[in-house]
UniProtKB/TrEMBL annotation:
Gene Ontology MF annotations: transmembrane transporter activity
Keywords linked to the UniProt accession: Membrane, Transmembrane, Transmembrane helix, Transport
GO cellular component, one term: membrane
PROSITE patterns in the record: MFS
Listed Basic and acidic residues bias regions: 299-309
Residues passing through the membrane, by range: 27-51, 63-86, 98-117, 123-143, 155-178, 202-224, 341-360, 380-399, 411-433, 456-486, 532-553
Keyword Membrane among UniProt keywords: yes
Taxonomic path: Eukaryota, Viridiplantae, Chlorophyta, Chloropicophyceae, Chloropicales
SUPFAM superfamilies: MFS general substrate transporter
Predominant localisation class: membrane
Name used for this protein in its record: MFS general substrate transporter
Length: 561
């Protein structure tokens, strides 16, 4: 705790940003980001098999895509509903409380999901956990505020944490899921039909990562200093404000000597006071707490024209003008063209990747005669992890250099073109797949298909996985920097959460759209290639929209630092 306090003081003396980005200082935040990536990505290779286990699709395999799309969409939909609120709140109470709330909610929800045997119960859990989760926005704010001039390096660390989660999450979740079905009686406790892991086949995946998420969130809350130095007024009554900022009620009621509480600089964020009778606004002297600032006033109290401003004055509405000013500022950033363009570009990047990551497992798990590759859940997870593993050295060694050489907007444009090519090319991989007849056709969905793949298909899928993940690193890390460039510093949390809300909305549209397309196209009579290709066309059009938005973005949003 002492080290965290020293880091916080150092950040305060440097204007709220570190001179350099140290990996050690960011480790707790990167652990939280890693756990968030795992929680988001681990579900994709499991979705098809979870819906099958729940039995909600019945005997109609064409409904499988629809139900998997709905289950994948509920989490980002609930995040979309509350993301802006959590961002608004973080500008007032700090980043740490909002991050802790999100970590606790998603960790507990993951553990509960491991005990779920009903589709609609799983849906409910995903909705509730999403409502309280705004971790990604808060981590983007905290890392940006810590990075200072080294934003590209900070985003490289951020990207490494995410891609490491995508590396370990899908593959380990696929390996741990349905152990009795995958490994038979060789796996402990799978000897009987009513064994625990037979009744809860996804318990190991969700429980393991749920506990890890809880531990990482609590660890970060204990050791990471608050990065937001200039908190805005809550505009709420004192009691609720103390609860939201985790302040001690006893300490707030009285000082050490039993007198009125001392008001520190952290509590003084108002520029003007307004007389309740409508008189002109009066200037408020801001007083620094701590060692003093040379003006003789270092007691942390607030003064207005020679008198201390009491809590009663605050409750009587003397701070109403600052609330009006804050409201005007909120409206001004929302109408900012650069903010809207950057956030919508972020949303389109999210739409492409969530749609593609939902669609590829459907394509990979479909049988060869139905246009797929006949892969099992762990097979799909392995190829996702291969791509994620390659991006770790890329993010650390090449991405910061490419940002300096080409700029963030160039990387987004180039990434958009690459995404278009990959989306169009993906369905043609089934031409390299070999149809193999197996006696136990009913259990083929749980049987690995890696052994039936040709060497050429192995190479093609490996290169495909590397390209899609490297492009994702370029696009996501670059667009986060673009959003930060467009964001007014006073509304950093609100703007980042607004972008995250749009991304969450796209994560609702993406899985539902491609899931529905997959189901509808499966009913088209005729060419199997046409049935498989149309959903990927949706991904290609999304990549085209990314390119157009990046093309019209103004040059001052570009960054080479």
């Amino acid at each position: 705790m002492a080290g965290a306090k020293e880091e916080e003081e150092a950040m305060a003396t440097k204007g709220g940003a570190m001179e350099g980005v140290g990996f050690r200082q960011m480790v707790p935040l990167l652990l939280v980001q890693f756990s968030q990536a795992v929680q988001v990505m681990m579900l994709f290779p499991l979705l098809v098999f979870m819906v099958e286990f729940y039995g909600v699709a019945g005997d109609d395999p064409k409904l499988l895509g629809t139900y998997t799309g709905v289950l994948a969409s509920m989490f980002p939909l609930s995040m979309f509903i509350t993301s802006f609120f959590w961002g608004w709140l973080s500008d007032r109470i700090g980043r740490k409380p909002v991050t802790l709330i999100g970590g606790l909610s998603i960790g507990i929800g993951s553990v509960l999901l491991g005990f779920t045997t009903d589709y609609y119960m799983a849906l409910t859990i995903r909705i509730v956990t999403g409502l309280f989760n705004n971790i990604t926005s808060m981590l983007k704010c905290m890392i940006s505020e810590m990075s200072g001039k080294h934003l590209a390096k900070g985003m490289a660390y951020f990207s490494v944490a995410w891609t490491t989660g995508t590396l370990i999450g899908p593959s380990l979740a696929g390996i741990l899921a349905m152990p009795c079905q995958q490994y038979g009686h060789r796996f402990p406790t799978c000897e009987h039909e009513d064994a625990f892991l037979n009744r809860f086949p996804f318990f190991l995946s969700f429980f393991f990562f749920g506990v890890f998420t809880l531990c990482s969130a609590i660890y970060a809350a204990l050791v990471v200093p608050e990065t937001l130095k200039n908190k805005k007024p809550l505009g709420l009554n004192k009691g609720l404000r103390r609860v939201l900022t985790f302040r001690s009620s006893a300490g707030a009621l009285r000082g050490a000597d039993g007198s009125s509480p001392k008001r520190t600089y952290e509590d003084v964020k108002y520029e003007h006071l307004e007389d309740p009778k409508g008189k002109e606004g009066l200037e408020l002297t801001e007083v620094m707490s701590g060692n003093g600032n040379g003006n003789g006033m270092d007691n942390g109290h607030r003064y207005e024209e020679g008198r201390e401003v009491s809590d009663e004055d605050e409750d009587q509405g003397l701070l109403s003008s600052s609330a009006k000013s804050a409201g005007a500022n909120e409206e001004s950033w929302f109408r900012n063209r650069d903010v809207q363009l950057a956030c919508f570009l972020y949303g389109m990047v999210a739409l492409f990747y969530v749609a593609f990551e939902e669609l590829f497992p459907l394509f990979g798990s479909a049988r060869v005669e139905n246009g797929g590759l006949s892969l099992a859940s762990k097979d799909v997870g392995i190829f996702m992890s291969i791509g994620g593993g390659f991006t770790i050295p890329y993010s650390l060694l090449l991405f910061p250099r490419l940002v300096k050489a080409k700029g963030t907007l160039w990387l987004v444009k180039f990434g958009s073109i690459t995404c278009m090519v990959l989306a169009v090319f993906t369905p043609f991989m089934r031409l390299l797949a070999t149809q193999v007849d197996h006696p136990d056709e009913d259990n083929q969905i749980n049987r690995s298909g890696l052994g039936d793949m040709s060497p050429l298909l192995w190479v093609v899928m490996t290169v495909h996985a590397i390209l899609i993940h490297v492009t994702g690193t370029n696009c996501f890390a670059s667009i986060i920097i673009v959003v930060n460039m467009a964001s007014p510093k006073a509304h950093f949390g609100a703007v980042n959460s607004y972008g995250q809300a749009l991304a969450s909305l796209m994560r609702v549209i993406g899985p539902g759209s491609v899931g529905l397309l997959w189901t509808l196209c499966g009913r088209i009579k005729g060419s199997t290639m046409l049935q498989v290709s149309l959903p990927f066309v949706f991904c290609g059009l999304t990549a085209l929209a990314m390119f157009v938005l990046a093309l019209v973005a103004p040059k001052h949003l570009d960054s080479r630092t």
